[in-house]
Each structure stands twice: as C-alpha cells, then as structure tokens.
Amino acid sequence: MGILDSKIPSGPLADKWTKHKNDINLVNPANKRNIDIIVVGTGLAGGAAAATLAELGYNVKTFCYQDSPRRAHSIAAQGGINAAKNYQGDGDSNYRLFYDTIKGGDYRSREANVYRLAEVSGNIIDQCVAQGVPFAREYGGMLDNRSFGGVLVSRTFYAKGQTGQQLLLGAYSAMNRQINRGKIQAFNRHEMMDLVLVDGKARGIIARDLVSGEIERHSAHAVVLATGGYGNVFFLSTNAMGSNVMAAWRAHRKGAFFANPCFTQIHPTCIPVSGDHQSKLTLMSESLRNDGRIWVPKKMEDAIAIREGKKKPTELAEEDRDYYLERRYPAFGNLVPRDVASRAAKERCDAGFGVNKTGEAVFLDFASAIERYGKEKALTSGLKDPDKATITKLGEEVVEAKYGNLFQMYEKIVDQNPYKTPMMIYPAVHYTMGGLWVDYNLQTTIPGCYSAGEANFSDHGANRLGASALMQGLADGYFVLPYTIGDYLSKDIRTGKIPTDSPEFDEAEKQVRDRMEKLMSGSGIHSVDYYHKKLGKIMWNKCGMARNEKELKEAIKEISDLRKDFWENVKIPGSIESKNQELEKAGRVADFLELGELFAKDALHRNESCGGHFREEYQTEEGEALRDDENFKYVAAWEYKGEPKDAELHKEDLVYENIELKTRSYK
Fold this sequence. Notes:
InterPro entries: FAD-dep_OxRdtase_2_FAD-bd, FAD/NAD-bd_sf, Fum_R/Succ_DH_flav-like_C_sf, Fum_Rdtase/Succ_DH_flav-like_C, SdhA/FrdA/AprA, Succ_DH/Fum_Rdt_flav_su, Succ_DH/fumarate_Rdtase_cat_sf. There is one protein chain. This protein is an alpha+beta fold and 667 residues long. 39% of the residues lie in helices and 14% in strands. The protein contains 18 helices and 19 strands. The protein has helices spanning 16-23, 29-32, 44-56, 94-104, 111-131, 163-181, 246-253, 300-307, 324-328, 338-353, 367-380, 388-414, 469-489, 503-520, 528-543, 549-569, 581-605, 629-632, and strands spanning 36-40, 59-64, 81-82, 156-157, 184-188, 190-198, 201-209, 215-219, 222-225, 258-259, 264-270, 293-297, 321-322, 362-365, 423-432, 435-436, 449-451, 634-639, 648-653. The strands form 5 sheets. It has a 5-stranded parallel beta sheet with strand order 5-2-1-9-17, with helices on both faces. A hairpin with a 2-residue loop joins strand 6 and strand 7. Helix 4 (94-104) packs across helix 5. The protein is globular.
C-alpha cells in the first residue's frame, strides 16, 4: 500500500495558492504555439479549460460525444453557482465558504484544494458576467443571491432555473472564439476509447468517430479528462443518458488511481420514479427548498388516503402535516445538506408515510411562500386589505418569476399544477464525488494526464453542497488548470510533435479494436439495456442510500457474475465500421460493470458512515452518520490490478490544520 503525495504547497492556508503560482514554471508565448493539449469533455470544466488554454496560445483539440459542446450535461444544472462575494452583507467570506464546503463534505475533503476553490470563486462570477451570462439581479441592479442547503448565508448566483445552461453558453462562446482563431480543433461526435502512454506519460488518445465508425489516433503533450461523473452506473439517475465513465475508466486501467468510488450524492428533490419504463430521472432544483416546505402527513391513515387518491394534500390541515426537516433540524430546516435531506425522506417513506402510489415520495409545498410573497407584493403595490384570491395571484407571479421554468417542467412531466397542489419529490442519484485521484495540480497518477470537474475525485469529500459543482468545474477550467499544466509542459518545449505512428499508438488501437470485436461476438441473448438495468437495480438496492456489509458482499458477487454473462451473451446489432449506438452503449456499460464492483468494494472497506456513504452498522442513536476519524480520515485511491476484486488500496491521509473535526450538526 502506497502513501500518495498530493503536492500541497507549504505555508499558511490563505497563501498556498498564491505562493504556488509564484513558484511553478511557465511556458513563454512562443513555446506555447508548439505544444498540443487534448481536452476530452466540453462541459463547464472542459469547455472552460479548452477556451483558456487556447487563449494562452496552446494548440487544443477538444472531444465530445455530443453533436455540440452546447449539449454537455452541465446544461442540466438548474439552481446556481456559489461564490463568496458577500453581496448580501450576511457575513460570508472565503473562509466561510471553505468551512461550509469542508463540513458539508463530512470532513473527507482536502483542505488546500477547498480553500483554493473558495478563493477563486469570486473570479468566476466576474468572468461569467463579462461573458454576458444573465445572472438574476435584484431591484437595484445588483446580482441577486439565494441560499442552498448546508449554509447560513445567501451566496448562490443564479439565472432562474437555467444556470448551467447559461454558464455553458458562456464557456462555449469563449471556445467558439478560439475555434474561429484556429487554436481549438473541435472533434464533436467523437468518443475517447483509450489513453495512449509513451514512456509512461499520457501522449494522446484513441478516439472513435461516432458517425462513421472510424478509429482515429490523436497525439498531444498532455491530456485533460473532463468527462463528468458516473451516476449512470445506477441506470436511473438525473444524468443525461449518454453520461458515462469510459474516459476516466480507460485512464484508470492505464494506471490512474480511482478515488472514493462509493462517494455518490443522492439528491433529495427529484421527480419520483413512475414505473419500469423510465430511462432517466428529472431533477427539481435544490433552489426550490428556499421557499418550498417539505412535509408528509402526521397520521398514517391520511398518508394511506392520499396514496389511494381518496384525499388531496390541500385538504390536510396544518396541524396534520409533519414538516419533518423543520422538526428535526430547526437551525437549517428545509435547507439541510442533500445527504441529510435524502435520508430523512427515505426514513419517512420507509415508515409508511410516503404520498404517491409507490409510497416513495414526499411533498414540496409552496403555499406558504405564495401567501408570504403575495402579502408583501400587495403592500409594496399599495393594495389595502387585499382578498385571498388577490394575494394568491400576486404570490404566484413572484414565484413564477423566480422558479417559473422549473414549475413548467414539473407540470409537463407529472401533469399537475404545482402552484395549486404540492410537488411530489423523492431522492435520486445525482452527482459523484468519487473519480480519478488528482494532486493539487489536478494531475492524476499518470504524468501528463489531468482531470477536471466532476471527473476527478473533486473537492467535495463525501457529500457535495448544492451549487458547488458549477463552481468547481469553472474554477478548475478557468483558474486552476491553465496555471498548473504549464508547470508540467515547461519540460516539453523541445519535445516536438508527438508522432502517432509509434508502437504505443499501434498497440492502443489494436486493444480498442480487439475489445469492440469481443463485444460484437456475444451470443446475442440480451440487449445492452437489459444488463444496464440489472446492474442499476443491484447498485440502488445494495449500494444506494444505505449500505451494509451483507448486501455489499452480495453486490460484489452479483456484479461479477453479471459482467461475465454480459461478455458472453450481450446482443449488439450492426457493425464496428459504421454508426452504431448499441456498440457505444455496450462499451460504456462494460466499464460500468467494472466500476460497479469497485464501488461496492470501496463501500465495503470503509467501515464508517460519512456524507452520502451511509453504512447501516455505523449510525448514531438518532440515525445520523457516524464517522470514524481515527481509522478512515483518508482518501481511498484504488490502483487497477486486473479484476476489480484485485484492486490495490492506496491512502492519502487528510490533514486538518485549520478546521476542527466535529460531528456534523444542522440542528
């Protein structure tokens, strides 16, 4: 077992990043023109990195499986992006954002990285405003903020419920400028099939043109992987259907350690599962918890009557409603962190108080907010003694201005008007805090291979606070990687172009072709989706919101057996040499079948509960997560050794010099 070197700079926490930038090597502008960088993934992290690196003068190639970078899954982020600007004057600061993030991650994050994230957060907002991102503004014209879970300040900048889309358009416009300058060569509808190593360094990738089926070789002096998370290992998640782990897993198989795979975030406010026909789940932004109140009936008979359609939720008197988050966590109420809110919803539904037909849903109610906003609007409009209908109408107008597109989306999917009846929500797989292990420079354990955004094991520990994904992606892409990658590339100014006709590229391409032919040679009994759904059920039932030793051991065996059956019996029509979406899916599911087993192995070895990793054997008397800081205060990074069961554990000890470790409390 090795001890990992995170390359954290010495000195006081607040000075580390500045000192590091002053100490690292740079590449002069003339030499940058002779250096090539590949960026795989063009969401917020990849798009921001590609645009910035090209602006600096590097020659950049970008790859995405979508038909345009505009369709990266970053577009789906709704609620907002955190930054410690303290525009509200409510006591926010870089330190407060740093502290909230470390605490929210249940003390399983790296201090230096998280402080840097907080430090550059304000720059992100300035950058995006300059790009024209239409952040919401308050009446005086200043940028508006709202609150998210796990914090006591308002620091989340937003653009209605379309924040990810607007930020992505900003990054894409910056990319387009570089494409027009010839500094970015964009390869859309291309999928990375493998990482190519030359003399132990990442020197390129093998990619497949998803339209023609052609296998291509692309070389570079460094490779950046910014391909998002692996939530689709559960099949049903809030991720786009195409989201996958392939690029990260290919790098893992070549020597990049995979860290904390079991740290997965369950988001508490998703539209509940409606049946076996579903292929994905839809998120309702956490921003709705600013004004929505979460409840279930207090009495079992009321819950049963609502489930059976004999009673409407609006018919229940206030005293018959259990606002369980406000009851259990009075200091934070409905704005507790996601892992806490998710477990609380599951606990109520498991106890029999669920409110939809399956019994797996709770209410998110805006009636109080509509009344409150309506009265305020009436007062500011000079209306005296308005009737209830007027108050309701005015209140709905305010709520529509803040959350209108989210309400519209809910109504289209569920066919219920959330202005008139409470939304139904339930937890679902959302974000993955695990990913490729990276050091302070965002470099993996493979020299020259970097990872940014959700694809790396990130700054979020065991649970990501809301509105931090966009912050981390853009921080990595705009403000961290462009500095740190230069230190590595400064040693390549005399290297020259990396040839693609080398034995290493030959071997990598051969392995890719052999793998695809093996996939195509299955006996053809079951479809790819058959295996993906079976894997998803194992993962959700035994590695989901709660885990225990017995079921994790069962999951490891079941996933191993399922993987064997997949390779023998999967059915993939069509050919390798043409557009073949079943072949695309098969390659991704094959990697999920390996990742799923490592996920369960990681969860089994971590004998504690922390953040989104909830082991039933390790909980307090009140049902809260029970950490074991003496034995598990480390990042678990796994080295590929063939089968997932043989993966070797390496530890990065987490040192806290600026924050006192405490049991999290939101009461």
